[in-house]
Amino acid sequence: MNRPIDPVSLQLFVAVCEEGNIARAAARESLVASALSKRIAALEAEVGVPLLLRRRRGIELTPAGQALLSRSREVLGALDSLRAELGAFGDGVQGSARVLASPSVLAEQLPLDIAAFLGRHPGIRIGLDERMSPDIVRGIREGTADLGVLWDLIDLSGLQVLPYRSDRLCVALSPDHPLARRPSLPYADTLDQSSISVSPGGQLDQLLRRHAALLGRVPSYRMQVSSIDAAARMVVAGLGLAILPLELATPHAGAGRLALVPLAEPWAVRRFVVVTRPTPLLSAAARLLAESLHRMAG
Question: Which of 62, 84, 99, 193 is 20 to 30 A from 140 (CA-CA)?
Fold first, then answer.
């Protein structure tokens, strides 16, 4: 390979991979299929190895093509971030960072922490988007975001990880429930009770099912809901207990509407982290935000 690969070729290559078909990728990029095909052939000539296998029903990536796809997304994401950051300087901005956060983190202190950071650094622009944890990790690895803030229950190998905040899981019960006056509850004591599942398939649901399985049990779910608010309303109505983050359940417990009993197990503490790519790959703004969030946790 004698010449640097240009970003347009990478963009076209990613389009072909995502569409799985040269004709569809050409339409997406407003090109004729023959021109796009020649561009991909030229890219393969530049790198010196086949990237795509042309099949009757579309294309298939070679191992080299899979490697290039991952790196292409990272490079294109970094270029997009660079354009946004440089363009913002014309408006007086001194830097920018894109943050991906899980719903559980956004429901707690992160928005206030970012607001406090911007109060100290008004020249920095922060983009904040909600994503599920696997998408956050993928976005950081591919370079489409600068920071991720999430529960640490997922594989974070290869990323820089800084501790952020934490919370504790509790059992939310009706005040007249037989277990409501206990100072804490082992998870096993809840498994014989009718309960409410929150966000089935999510990280909390998977955690509870895993620890029930370790006890040789299955949670006795009476119903399923998609939010903490809905679960709290079900508990208030006397339809069962729910395992909820204490910090998020507390506002629903006013006027004696709910009893909140901490889970006794060590795994009931949820630890949130800030994840980034290695420090040398971060902009000054992203590095400053990551360090600030880490200090706030302390």
Answer: 62
Has residue 36 been placed in a domain? yes
Q: Per-residue confidence of the chain (298 residues) as pLDDT tens digits?
A: 456 788 888 999 999 998 998 889 899 888 898 898 999 998 988 888 899 988 877 888 999 989 898 888 888 877 776 676 666 555 554 688 899 999 889 988 999 999 999 998 888 889 999 999 999 999 999 888 999 999 998 999 989 999 999 999 999 999 999 999 999 999 999 998 999 999 888 889 999 999 999 999 988 888 999 888 999 999 999 999 999 999 889 988 887 789 999 999 999 999 999 999 887 778 888 999 999 999 987 6
Pair (152, 287) in one structural domain: yes
Residues 147 and 221 in one domain: no
Range of the domain at 126: 86-165+271-297
Same domain, yes or no: 158 and 180: no
Quote the DSSP letter at residue 5: P
The model scores a pTM over 0.85: no
| Rounded (10°) angle between helices 7-19 and 33-47 | 110
Instruction: Identify whether residues 260 and 233 lie together within a single domain.
Output: yes
Q: Report the b/e string of 267-296 with b at 16+ CB within 10 A.
A: ebebebbbbbbeeeebbebbbbbbebbeeb
